[in-house]
């Protein structure tokens, strides 16, 4: 089905996904214009042939009817079969008219069966149920006024009830199946939307974690040049080199993240490739980079053998904590302690004095600590931050480190 094809209910294919609940669940309006697809033409032709076939079978058994009544039966039966083509536009009206006519006229039965079946498929029980009940009621005058030679009135009534209920049940089953298919399709669409949203959130966290670190380095060195224009030429050259290096790294990281974002939004079914992720083994390099930027950082690392996914999350937590310390307590000594043991968990503490003030206070939106808390909670751990009685600002994180790490128990990178 292409994008310009029209469904049998008059809804374009690209609008069909949104119109499907009303059409499938039976809330479509009566009498609106119908444009059939190829499948709809095939189905409607089949329904028309079924109605005609049932009419001809009934006509073959009408051998002792008066000629005037037979002529009326034939005319009304032919009109009822032709009216089957209106079943998509006026299903309820067609079912009501044919049901009432079938209370005496026999050749309307084929069209009536198709109409009742259509209502059972396309309308809710609050509509299809009363119409079916009306069909059962009309059996009483039919068996009384048109007795059959080989059936008693009671036998004819039982046979009629069985036929009506079978048609109604068949339509209900088809309707229930369509509802199930639609529900599963909506669940699949919802799951796909959740996956895309999670991927966008992951990319956003990645951009924040990477760029906040790089840009804070740039601001720190630029601030030093601004407040010390009389610094020795060697220090100015080192600061300019650090600015150039961090700007280059920031652009490179941004290019990689944007490449992942474009791949995620390209609509392909391929898995989105992850950027190379750091682990606890990269913490010494991060600390050394901070030292070169002028920070006084001490690292105590006693859990270098942690699993990759665990070390990746803890690295990002420590990185963001150092970025916050550089923004709000530049020049103050920072102590980083990372320890852990299999079965007990992996913890990290980042401390810096509250009394420190940097001449260039970098702006912050306050999203860093919120992101750290979310990252820790998504990994099954917890994160605490705030001032301590000793006059320090503390960021403490704990992540679970199970005794056995398997692919099933490994958490994805938050």
Automatic annotation (TrEMBL):
GO terms for molecular function: kinase activity. The chain crosses the membrane at residues 41-60, 94-120, 127-145, 157-176. Its EC number is 2.7.13.3. It catalyses: ATP + protein L-histidine = ADP + protein N-phospho-L-histidine. Residues 38-178 form the DUF7134 domain. It is an enzyme of class 2 (transferase). Residues 199-265 form the Signal transduction histidine kinase subgroup 3 dimerisation and phosphoacceptor domain. Keywords: ATP-binding, Kinase, Membrane, Nucleotide-binding, Phosphoprotein, Transferase, Transmembrane, Transmembrane helix, Two-component regulatory system. The keyword Plastid does not apply. InterPro entries: DUF7134, HATPase_C_sf, Sensor_HK_TwoCompSys, Sig_transdc_His_kin_sub3_dim/P. SUPFAM superfamilies: ATPase domain of HSP90 chaperone/DNA topoisomerase II/histidine kinase (SSF55874). This is histidine kinase.
């Amino acid at each position: 089905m292409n994008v310009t094809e029209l469904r049998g209910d008059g809804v374009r294919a690209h609008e069909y996904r949104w119109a499907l609940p009303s059409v499938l669940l039976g809330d479509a309006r009566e009498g609106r214009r119908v444009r059939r697809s190829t499948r709809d033409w095939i189905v409607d032709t089949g329904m028309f042939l079924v109605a005609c076939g049932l009419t001809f079978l009934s006509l073959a058994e009408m051998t002792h009817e008066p000629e005037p009544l037979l002529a009326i039966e034939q005319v009304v039966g032919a009109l009822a079969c032709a009216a089957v083509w209106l079943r998509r536009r006026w299903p309820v009206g067609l079912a009501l008219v044919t049901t009432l006519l079938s209370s005496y006229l026999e050749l309307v039965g084929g069209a009536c069966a198709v109409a009742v079946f259509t209502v059972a498929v396309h309308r809710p029980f609050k509509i299809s149920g009363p119409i079916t009940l009306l069909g059962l009621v009309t059996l009483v005058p039919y068996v009384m006024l048109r007795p059959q030679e080989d059936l008693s009135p009671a036998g004819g009534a039982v046979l009629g009830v069985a036929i009506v209920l079978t048609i109604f049940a068949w339509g209900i089953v088809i309707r229930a199946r369509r509802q199930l298919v639609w529900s599963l399709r909506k669940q699949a669409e919802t799951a796909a939307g959740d996956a895309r949203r999670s991927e966008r959130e992951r990319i956003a966290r990645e951009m924040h974690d990477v760029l906040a670190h790089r840009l804070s380095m740039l601001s720190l060195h630029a601030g030093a040049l601004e407040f010390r224009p009389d610094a020795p030429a060697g220090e100015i050259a080192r600061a300019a080199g650090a600015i150039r290096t961090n700007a280059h790294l920031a652009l490179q990281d941004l290019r990689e993240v944007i490449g992942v974002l474009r791949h995620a939004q390209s609509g392909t079914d391929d898995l989105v490739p992850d950027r190379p992720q750091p682990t606890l083994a990269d913490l010494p390099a991060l600390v050394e980079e901070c030292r070169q930027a002028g920070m006084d950082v001490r690292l105590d690392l006693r859990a270098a053998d942690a699993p990759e996914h665990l070390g990746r999350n803890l690295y990002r937590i420590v990185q963001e904590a150092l970025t916050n310390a550089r923004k709000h307590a530049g020049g103050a000594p920072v102590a980083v302690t990372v320890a852990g043991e299999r079965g007990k968990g992996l913890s990290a503490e980042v401390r810096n004095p509250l009394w420190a003030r940097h001449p260039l206070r970098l702006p912050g939106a306050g999203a860093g600590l919120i992101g750290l808390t979310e990252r820790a909670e998504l990994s099954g751990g917890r994160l605490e931050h705030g001032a301590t009685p000793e006059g320090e600002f503390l960021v403490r994180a704990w992540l679970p480190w199970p005794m056995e790490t398997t692919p099933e128990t490994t958490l994805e990178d938050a």
